[in-house]
Hints:
The structure holds 2 protein chains of 2 kinds.
Chain A: E1 4-7, E2 10-13, E3 18-25, E4 31-37, E5 44-50, E6 53-57, E7 64-70, E8 73-79, E9 87-94, E10 103-104, E11 108-112
Parallel strand pairs in A: 2-11
Antiparallel strand pairs in A: 1-3, 3-8, 4-5, 4-9, 5-6, 7-8, 9-10, 9-11
Chain B: E1 3-5, E2 10-14, E3 19-21, E4 24-26, E5 32-39, E6 46-52, E7 59-61, E8 64-69, E9 74-79, E10 88-96, E11 104-105, E12 109-114
Parallel strand pairs in B: 2-12
Antiparallel strand pairs in B: 1-4, 3-9, 5-6, 5-10, 7-8, 8-9, 10-11, 10-12
Amino acid sequence: DTEVTQTPKHLVMGMTNKKSLKCEQHMGHRAMYWYKQKAKKPPELMFVYSYEKLSINESVPSRFSPECPNSSLLNLHLHALQPEDSALYLCASSPLGVNEKLFFGSGTQLSVL
Amino acid sequence: AQKVTQAQTEISVVEKEDVTLDCVYETRDTTYYLFWYKQPPSGELVFLIRRNSFDEQNEISGRYSWNFQKSTSSFNFTITASQVVDSAVYFCALTLRDNTDKLIFGTGTRLQVFP
Lengths: 113, 115
């Protein structure tokens, strides 16, 4: 299994909603990432988990809350988002770190109304 | 500072044409890694190649080839005999040896291959 699976594929939420994005990999990778990608822009790093511990938070607003319950699973909890948070959210994993190949999921397209 | 520049925002070609996507990088480190990723309309980024700074050998994989030149800080990507399935956004990216887990992306080049 060489896949990173993200659910849901699409999500529409209001500014008062609470929702979660899920990411799963079963490749034994020790590093997992959340990226945000706006249309026609490159992905922007949000969070990095290394060995299930948060190692990088790129000054992301607290309305985004990551969680790594185990080595295969990564969640992104969303609360009180703004319309400008609408974007494609990509999860990725790598065996040990970013100097190796990253495996990306197909993303969650999020719309905040 | 580290930076990756992809000056070509969009390229359109007709099937079977050869096309080269340019990538120029900036870093003061002597050890670094360069990557190309492909992002088709489906959304996921697909790894194409990784090169470390000490390996300047050019690489060919099927219709894809890469030209790494440290003298000009470039890592260009050529698709030979392009196909419609090559239509995608292509990102060049850079990481450093210190493995800060930050992948520095270029702005991407959108390639459209018409039948």
